[in-house]
Amino acid sequence: MGRWLLGMVLGLTLAVSAAGQGAPSFPTGSISLVTEDGDEHAFTVELARTREQIEWGLMYRRSLAQDHGMLFIYPDVRHVTMWMKNTKIPLDMLFLDAGGEVVRIVERAEPESTKSIPSGEPVRAVLEVAGGTAERLDLEPGAEVRHPVFD
Question: What is the CA 99 to chain-centroid distance, rounded?
């Protein structure tokens, strides 16, 4: 219970910090990230669904807990391009197809970069987590994100 409470406090602190920069508010939810070996990892995520939320993302954040992230959910399956402008921390990006399967992973995207990071194929969502998470959890394409948006 203490670890959960600490995570929630950290998440709220980061949200308040970003809000001070003019950030939109983000609802939160839970996801399960399942590796190809069947190992399951729970994450608390902020949900970016609106254009404003998607454009803002994790900009100006100074930290991100290892079991937190942001799930960018698009209204339909499409090619997407991400970037790291005004993002202060390295992130791993997991590009997810309509069923929640990881189809591409970009590890430790460079903070502050304006370089385009394409999905490579049409996706339904992108999960951004702290840089190094993909390596720590031994994630590869074929892993799965479980969330109601993929049902």
Answer: 16
